[in-house]
Amino acid sequence: MTSHWINGWRLTGLLSVLLTLMVIAIVGLHDFSIDGIRMAIRATARTSLILFLPVFAASALARLWPGDATRWLRRNRRYLGVSFAASHGLHAIVIAAFAIGDPALFRSMTSIGTLISGGSAYLVIMAMAATSFDRAVSWLGPRNWRALHWLGGWYIAVSFIVTNAKRIPDMPLYWLPVVLVLAAIALRLVSWWQGRRAPRMASAPV
């Protein structure tokens, strides 16, 4: 049984603190060097993916495998989503530290296309995080809110696929995050298909 204190905004606060401590520990253990900063960039990229996947697949998991765990996940999807935004915010901070600490190396490893695609993904994440509060939902209206978060979720999923897939030739292990995102997409598609079939089966003659 899930404890009451790991629900809602307490969950977001706990995860945000842990993520911040992780970044400080990684960079600090490497004497605040560029190597440590680059390790923190990779670590926050992974924590962002780990937090995004259950948020993206929450509704599908609750429909396909109803139970205490999936109901908890769906109930806390908003708070995990804001935690994902916090992780990616830390990711942006350490990227900025890399750019300031070693601008020549940063430029050699970064293209204009990467900056544009990454920047647009951050705008989407910021928009979704800013509208994760009840007052924002009321201001946008439920229909617009759902459209923003549906489109935003798919945009981020595709961004994760593209970002990791282009690194596979240099490091084959990057196929793993690509497969995980594709699996989450598959779950959503299966859930959507079952949702479409259910009314037809209910109305079918006996």
Kindly summarize this structure in a few lines:
The chain has 206 residues and is mainly α. The chain has one domain (4-195). The protein has helices at 8-29, 34-64, 68-75, 77-101, 103-109, 112-130, 134-140, 142-165, 175-203.
Describe the model:
- By secondary structure, this protein is mainly alpha-helical.
- The chain has one domain (4-195).
- It is built from 9 helices and no strands.
- The chain has helices at residues 8-29, 34-64, 68-75, 77-101, 103-109, 112-130, 134-140, 142-165, 175-203.
- The chain starts with 7 loop residues before the first helix and ends with a helix.
- The relative contact order is 0.10.
Which terms summarize this structure?
single chain; 206 residues; mainly alpha; globular
Low-confidence stretches: none
**What does the radius of gyration come to?**
19 Å
The assigned structural class equals mainly alpha
Q: Kindly state the mean pLDDT as a whole number?
A: 91
User: From N to C, what is the helix and strand string?
Assistant: HHHHHHHHH
Report on the biggest sheet: none
Helix content range:
over 70%
Distance between the ends: 40 Å
Shape: globular
Tally of helical segments: 9
Count of β-strands? 0
Note the beta-strand portion: under 5%
Structural domains: how many: 1
